[in-house]
Write a structure and sequence with these properties.
31% of the residues lie in helices and 7% in strands. By secondary structure, the chain is mostly helical.
Length: 83
């Protein structure tokens, strides 16, 4: 499954599915996960393109999802913001 709602996302699978280089496509998004990695909420991006929440990070999945939310960058957030 490629949905972060399952507490993980397979970016390489998404790249294959949509014929894109996931590292280039998500180049602006992936660095936004670094503070979550440092806090132990998200595992570092794996060599095969996996992003996974840690057990401690599960309640904070929306923070990780926000890194990939195109609407937030455009000021058109349609979802509740985190505290």
């Amino acid at each position: 499954m490629t949905l972060l709602c399952n507490f993980q996302v397979d970016l390489s699978h998404m790249g294959e599915r949509f014929s894109l280089d996931y590292r280039s496509y998500f180049a602006d998004d992936l660095p936004q996960l670094e503070p979550l990695v440092q806090d132990g909420l998200v595992e570092p991006l794996t060599a095969d393109g996996q992003v996974r929440m840690t057990p401690n990070g599960l309640p904070f999945v929306r923070l990780a999802a926000m890194a990939f939310d195109r609407y937030l960058d455009q000021g058109k957030a349609r979802y509740s913001k985190t505290l």
